[in-house]
Q: What sequence folds into this?
């Protein structure tokens, strides 16, 4: 993946969160937001995310659907030593290859564990689909892997972040996606028409309106502009602020 | 939806998070975990979640795929007054019906806004797909709606929660999904074999192993058992704790 990005091509990605603990509500996922922000930095467009359970047929079918649809697939979760950690074998199944002992992964485990502690469960973690390349884990050693355009990472946020930070510089993307936020103290319904008119004039930007509750009561609206052209963003953000001011509001440029 | 659940039937659901702000990493979604926990309480199995952008064809196609696949689809986001709020018209498109002025929604807005403030943007929020039933919004009034098995709710967590809490008692489900957690101070690799053996004996339960970093350093593992039968859960949790103890650990039953 070291060659350069094709000019003008938009690189796309999907995040696949694997784990019953997310679908049960036990665990609040934070990996999606982390990956999303990182992809924006390297100009890769995150088009979709899915959360699926620890079910092998579901994992394999979903990986196969997504890896043909997007340039990159990033999975999180299911690469530990316990019976519910089945991502590696399911990704192997998706690619129609065997899940085999990876000598590099084995060497990492041999450096960490005494031979008598390198039990069956831990040896399972040394298996990757045939043709996979390891993704280093500087936090707790046990590596993830990449098989073609599918990046298989841990579920524990600190480990996942370290793995993703490692692969991020190797991704082919485009100019970073930048954003400007105009804070707005008027209700969405008051600014909607003006905002829509600005969006119509800036088709190359993505303008969103995100209301939230203020701590002290009432609403606050963040008008967020995203795009790859700094000058166009500044121009449009200026227009949004002027529009809010023209309606009697006090816009803030964040 | 007031009739009773079919005996023995497993009711399934999917959450569909709609919004560019989640895929850009600007906003950390918390609605999925809230809905997941609520569904477990009423015995509905959450099988999948997806996050998709504010793109009408994508929204319509995804709604159509999911509403035939699952008993319930819960969408969040995209029902405000701004140009990026397109969920209602896309759900209408999915069902092949018109997005029409809803007299009940209009009455709610007429009670909130003076006629001169009931502008085009706010009137858009009074439109729902033909045949839709409103979902009340006790927080900020503007309602969501249900069209057949698709529940369309707001993206703002406090509003979404109020909407979901309102519809939750009307859902057909099964016995609540209960859980037991055994805290474990041994590494996953040490307990994996024993845990797998217990899972094999309790096929009706879903046993997961979730490591996390301790604040003070090192790992902590939560061994989580989920199922609908309280006695079986207690029995299995006891076995898990005994297994951890047998390996020299100090299990805690949470």
A:
């Amino acid at each position: 993946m070291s060659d350069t990005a094709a000019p003008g091509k938009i690189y796309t990605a999907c995040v696949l969160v694997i784990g019953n603990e997310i679908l049960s509500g036990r665990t609040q996922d934070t990996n999606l937001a982390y990956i999303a922000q990182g992809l924006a930095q390297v100009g890769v467009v995150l088009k979709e995310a899915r959360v699926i359970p620890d079910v092998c047929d579901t994992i394999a079918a979903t990986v196969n659907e997504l890896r043909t649809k997007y340039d990159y697939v990033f999975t999180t979760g299911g690469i530990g030593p316990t019976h519910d950690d089945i991502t590696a074998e399911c990704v192997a199944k998706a690619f129609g290859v065997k899940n085999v002992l990876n000598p590099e992964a084995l060497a990492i485990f041999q450096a960490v564990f005494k031979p008598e502690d390198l039990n069956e469960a831990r040896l399972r973690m040394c298996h990757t689909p045939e043709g996979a390349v390891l993704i280093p884990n500087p936090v707790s050693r046990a590596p993830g892997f990449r098989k073609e355009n599918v990046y298989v990472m841990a579920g524990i946020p600190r480990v996942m972040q370290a793995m993703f930070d490692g692969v991020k510089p190797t991704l082919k993307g485009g100019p970073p996606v930048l954003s400007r936020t105009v804070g707005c103290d008027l209700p969405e319904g008051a600014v909607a028409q003006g905002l829509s008119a600005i969006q119509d004039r800036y088709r190359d930007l993505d303008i969103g309106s995100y209301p939230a509750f203020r701590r002290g009561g009432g609403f606050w609206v963040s008008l967020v502009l995203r795009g790859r052209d700094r000058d166009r963003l500044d121009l449009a953000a200026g227009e949004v602020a002027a529009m809010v001011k023209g309606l009697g509001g006090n816009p803030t440029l964040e």
